[in-house]
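lol ok so funny story. i was supposed to be doing the assay writeup but got distracted and ended up predicting the structure for this chain instead. priorities right. anyway since i did it might as well share w the group, maybe its usefull for someone
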Amino acid sequence: MLIGILSKKYVKEILELLNEKGELHFSQIHKEIPTHMSSLNRTLNELVKLGLISKRKEDNKQALPKTYYKLTPLGKKALLLYEVEKIIENSKNNQNIIIQIINGKNHNIINAKIVNIHNK
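and the output, tada:
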């Protein structure tokens, strides 16, 4: 389930890292994410299974091939949910929130407008 995985520890950081840096191999991700290798591997595999990131192996004739991970278009959309969460958490109880998500070919934008109920 998408919401379930997005609430797991380090998922937001992994998605943001891949969004910022592009394709990274496992050890590059591990340098940035302070968790056990087995936990990171499990989380990355869950993200791959849900289609939020893609995975490819590069066989460079060494003992172990490097595994690379990259954010998918669905993963970029999932990052928008963190923005929506932030907007909702920062709103006051007596206000309605109007959220417009624009997902164009080359951009993702969230416009949020907080409207006071009493002014309607």
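DSSP finds five helices and five strands in the chain. The longest strand covers residues 95-103.
back to the writeup now i swear
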